[in-house]
Amino acid sequence: MPQLDRIIVFSQIFWLFLIFSIFYAILTHYFLPKFLKSLKIRKQVIDSNTKDVLKKTEKTLSKQGSLKKILIKDLEVTSNLLTHYFSQLIKDKKKIDTLSIDQKIGFVILNTVKFCDLKILNSIFVYPKLLRFRN
How does pLDDT run across 23-33, given as a tens digit for each residue? Predict the structure, then answer.
């Protein structure tokens, strides 16, 4: 059988070994360092982006916390002023004009609903028409 001839088999093994050795040397010497360098740069970019995101979220959370403190303080001041104003009106026994106060409170509630307060929107349950008519 000619495919099992010793002369042909040894030359094929020699050239196979030589070609794969050269191919392996080229890959490890030229392409592998470039590939590893690109992987290292990608990892560094991801790490720096993660650090930036963490800094920005910490900054945002601190700003939200300070804003929440300011809002709570202002709400307490407003509550104290309203309590003082109504108690003063009751003491003086004057006619209390609640219409303008009700209009202002209604305007605030309307704007809160218009500008999509998520807590309010999540508290509204919407059911499909088909479920309403089933018994």
Answer: 999 999 999 99
The total of structural domains in the chain comes to 1
Q: Distance between CA 93 and CA 134 in Å, rounded?
A: 55
Nearest to 27 by CA among 16, 35, 18: 35
What DSSP line would sit under 47-107, residue for residue? HHHHHHHHHHHHHHHHHHHHHHHHHHHHHHHHHHHHHHHHHHHHHHTPPP-HHHHHHHHHH
How far is Cα 110 from Cα 93, in angstroms, rounded to an integer?
Answer: 32
Tokens in use for 55? 């800094």
Q: Identify the domain containing residue 114 by its residue range.
A: 2-133
Residues 112/120, Cβ–Cβ less than 8 Å: yes
What is this structure's pTM? 0.45
Q: Please check the confidence at residue 9 and state whether its pLDDT lies above 90.
A: no
Distances in Å between the alpha carbon of 116 and those of 68, 70, 110?
A: 19, 22, 10
